[in-house]
Amino acid sequence: MDARRPDGEQAMSGFEAATAVKRIGEGRYEVDLDGDFGFAEALNGGYLMAVLDRAAVDASPHEHPVSTAATFLRPAKPGRAELLVDARKTGRTAATSLVSLVQGDRPVVEALITTGTLTGAAEPVFAGPAPAADVPPLEECTSMLPAEGTEGFAGQVDMRFDRSTMGWLDGTPSGRPEIRAWFRLRDGYAPDAFSLALAVDALPPVALNLGSKGWAPTVELTWHMRAVPAPGWLAVHGTGRLLSDGWFDEEVEVWDSAGRLVAQSRQIARVGTGARK
Amino acid sequence: MDARRPDGEQAMSGFEAATAVKRIGEGRYEVDLDGDFGFAEALNGGYLMAVLDRAAVDASPHEHPVSTAATFLRPAKPGRAELLVDARKTGRTAATSLVSLVQGDRPVVEALITTGTLTGAAEPVFAGPAPAADVPPLEECTSMLPAEGTEGFAGQVDMRFDRSTMGWLDGTPSGRPEIRAWFRLRDGYAPDAFSLALAVDALPPVALNLGSKGWAPTVELTWHMRAVPAPGWLAVHGTGRLLSDGWFDEEVEVWDSAGRLVAQSRQIARVGTGARK
Prior knowledge:
Protein name (chains A, B): TesB-like acyl-CoA thioesterase 3
CATH class of the largest domain in chain A: Mainly Beta
Helix content of chain A: 10-25%
Oligomer: homodimer
InterPro entries (chains A, B): ACOT8-like_C, Acyl-CoA_hotdog, HotDog_dom_sf, Sec_Metab_Biosynth-Assoc, TesB_ACOT8-like_N
Domain Acyl-CoA thioesterase-like C-terminal (chains A, B): 139-271
Domain Acyl-CoA thioesterase-like N-terminal HotDog (chains A, B): 37-116
Pfam family, one (chains A, B): 4HBT_3C
């Protein structure tokens, strides 16, 4: 990992440092989880996946986490955690490992991660249409940076939200399970596989627009990296299909500044208190 | 598992027998994989997931495989295989285990499976619209049953395809990554969690309609059970977003005869030979 910035100054960025994994043995890594990438309830799931993906890629001959299927067992806490990477198959075009994030001797996140190498060169054989609704221009979007400044998640991640999808903030949820936003890291970290892992779980739960309230713990999230992202803002489109029986799904597509689909995800989560009112 | 039919006659149906798992120890099961649920290249991935889901549910206090995230490492062959179920967390509303299908001492499929209990009673808080295109009425659809009768996958699974999505069969792929079909098991097995696992991977690869040829090995498939399906035909809607760099995604929604979304999946697969022509 090259921690030198283009200006020649050596400095590991906030996101880079927060996701850095240190190899401490065969298939074993340690990480110091950064509380700034989380909320009161738990560290962000996308941040945790970025950490797991770094360990998987480090242990693999391939460069990109093409598929990450993560199950979230318990809230992760800031501080030291260990990663166990168990290679299940290492092939010429893809390698799969089971990666476990362990804290206090208990598994916190488990993921089946398949790495491969995306060339970034070939034109797609087929590319579906862009999402029906664009994210509006940056200057028409709203930020959620707290008045007090740069503490916590919003201090690390710069998101500019489509106002029409943020009615839940002031008690007027749209009734449509959609949230759209621009995404970048405040420290200038350029989009890559690991920031995509963060981006697919960075939106507030789309169920907030259905009257759901509070934290919506992700149970399972699978995301696929589809292309190496271009520099610049990422457009993050979140939707959902069904809120029923206490469960809801959320689909996220991430499009890069070159107009390409670079990541896609689906998660299934428990609804927050208040959704059944 | 009750193998008695309502008519009192004891008979385990084709699908029930083909997916039956026998507990042989703590977290250990064996299964006799049935070659009729496969093709020359390998057994069907949905069939294998049904087997893994049966083992996960048997070992869990919960009834339904709400989330199954499966990675396919090697082709499975007909005959004996062993299942290892490693409980990772057992909670009040959900339980997660890692389930491995092992054949000849090698892992063939690995899955993180979260079980829960869907009540089937509550009205959804939100249900998205049905897919844009209906599957046409049965009598307008086409079957792929081979002339010689009921051997193999098509002899077990009765699918009636929307002709407009089957142009690839006679060399005129539509150019749209879509395949739609009605689905049921020929033996009369009623829709349930395990037949949904089969249904989400029963369609021919949607990439065939993009000029892709031949077998498209699934690398990863995650499916979510969203409701207990009603009796009758299932409508299976397959689409895709991107075929690039040798990878393509396929999304499947399964709707039951009561018009409810009962399962949703996404898989990522390698394209078959010929796609890059």
